[in-house]
């Protein structure tokens, strides 16, 4: 290795440490200027393998500096709001209700009364039991339908790329394209 290669390696290492330590404060312009300077230094290297290694190191340093600057700001220059986003969709679905004892008992009694009206003797007893069982099932299903409710699911795409879904028991009044931000475990328009 010649003096120039050692000097270049030392400069790149120093540049990497400096850029790593102060990556948050280094702007994209500074990183680009540093990369151009490093490429010129690499071009002076006589051996192709050392020149390529120098270019790889310079590119790696540049890439790290750009990645560390990326979270602080977006391409358009404004700060990223981790809790701000945009509504991408709103879906309304019907959530099945719960069947309870009331539906089972009421349906069973009604079914038994209707079943008791059919036939006579043992047939009447079987019809009463079958009516009670069928009525209990039907009563349970009716109660589930009566207690069903609508649920609104709002999908959000955050500025930092994260996605989330929020559910509401009543219409939140949001549509796709609304700007929202987190408010506790929910979201609000802003």
TrEMBL record:
Residues 102-143 form the Glycine zipper 2TM domain. Transmembrane segments: none annotated. It is found in: Membrane. Pfam families: Rick_17kDa_Anti. It comes from the Bacteria. The keyword Flavoprotein does not apply. Keywords: Membrane, Signal. The keyword Cell inner membrane does not apply. Residues 1-23 form the signal peptide. InterPro entries: Bact_OM_lipoprot/Surf_antigen, Gly_zipper_2TM_dom. GO terms for cellular component: outer membrane. PANTHER family: OUTER MEMBRANE LIPOPROTEIN, PTHR35603. This is Glycine zipper 2TM domain-containing protein.
